[in-house]
Amino acid sequence: MTGGSYGGYMTFAVATHYNDRIRASLAVVGISKFVSFLERTESYRRDLRRVEYGDERDPAMREFLLKIAPLNNAKKITKPMFVVQGKNDPRVPLNEAEQMVATIKANNTPVWYLMAKDEGHGFSKKKNADFQFFATVRYAQEYLLK
Description:
This protein has one domain: Rossmann fold. About 50% of the residues lie in helices and about 15% in strands. It contains six helices and four strands. The protein has helices at about 5-15, 35-40, 45-55, 60-70, 95-105, 125-145; strands at about 1-5, 25-30, 80-85, 110-115. It has a four-stranded parallel β-sheet with strand order 1-2-3-4, with helices on both faces. Helix 5 links the parallel strand 3 (about 80-85) and strand 4. Helix 2 runs antiparallel to helix 3 (about 45-55). It starts with a strand and ends with a helix.
């Protein structure tokens, strides 16, 4: 399972809800908890994302968003996960990846983490994109092709 941005969120969600049906997953710039995402995404984007995902300031919506958050259900993840994130991402803040990686590690589940200090929402620099590609190949060799 793999995806980026909202697809990264879906990758995290699938890893929590369909763990028994996958061998590994790769989430790129994914949202791990809508509440923390909405509170930390750049302010110019916040109101549009609240319309799209729900307003975390509403108590009932906040409760729902916390219930469905992959981060809050990460104890169900037992299959290897590869998380890719740009440190300077204005859309999906770095915290989304770091909190998910820490939680998965605490579960003693294999987790790979690739963070580029000079990237944003996805890797656009050739050296970083190439490194991500080769790391992804290595990850697939380790967890999908054995």
